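Sat 14:20. Reprocessing the chain from the morning session after the first attempt stalled halfway. Input below, unchanged.
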Amino acid sequence: MPIITSPQDFNVEDLYVDLGPVLDVPLLLKCEGFNFAGSVKLKAAAAMVEAAERDGLLRPGSTIVESSSGNLGIALSVIAADRGYRFLCVTDPRCNPASIRVMRALGAEVLVIADQDANGGYLASRIAHVRRLCADCPDHVWLNQYANRNNWLAHYSGTAPAIDRRFPDLEVLFVGAGTTGTLMGCARYFRERGRPVTIVAIDAVGSVTFGDIPQRRMVPGLGTSTRPALVDESYIDEVVRVPEPDTIRTVHRLAARGFLFGGSTGTVVSGAARWLAARHPSGGRRPVAVAIAPDLGERYLDSIYEEGWLAEHFPDLPAPSGLELTDADVLGVHP
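Finished this time. Tokens:
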């Protein structure tokens, strides 16, 4: 085992779950939640902070400011604590309470912005608040994960090569779309190397990232109410939109087999399962397909795994304790 002095020095890069025996889906799930930030966002956070330090934007006494629905905020809280910066996270009411508690335990200040934007979300309102904070305080530095090229470069230089080394015959890669940093970094890597990998973006129904009509979204992580500047659809082969009830059904079925994953992972797995079922029916050839699981499920215990929250926001779904799911539930195929 390694001996480390910085929390960002530890990250499990080569752990995959074979979902064939678990969900009867020909899919390998790359688990990105085994680090001290608990998610894939540690990579982007580290890359953006290191670039800001190289460029002289971050210096002793600086305050890092960022808009986040949770995971990047936790990752920046970890790094700020390690490097001696103050960190201020601007989030919204959909952020998991556990995520807020983790950030505050790490010494971050968390501001919850409850004003909805024109699309019924909170992202534009959060960003507007960040801009005001930075305009008023010269020592505040906004890393801007939605437009910072170091966000996708972290995955171009790290995540994608790791997948490529492990699966040189990879055929399909499924990546969730939030800021699209992970998506664009992986897509650019495989495209620029001429690798015949189909890149499938997984988005939440109600997200505007790929030009869809905004709708209510309750599960934090994937999806946006303001299109990220990083997204470039020319690198993406297909987009699958997943309704949030299918996200919840999927994480509950995974949990029933002992795998407690987060909402973003449920969305990615549900979309990937539907795509694979349509193109590779049961009994046919099983492609080499990988999906990226951004995080684990402990931070969602107050939301997608909690009966009261489910009854309030998704009253038509059964409670987790009585959930009996079929393959149709995971695939989102219902009469």
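Residues 149-166 form the longest helix (18 residues).
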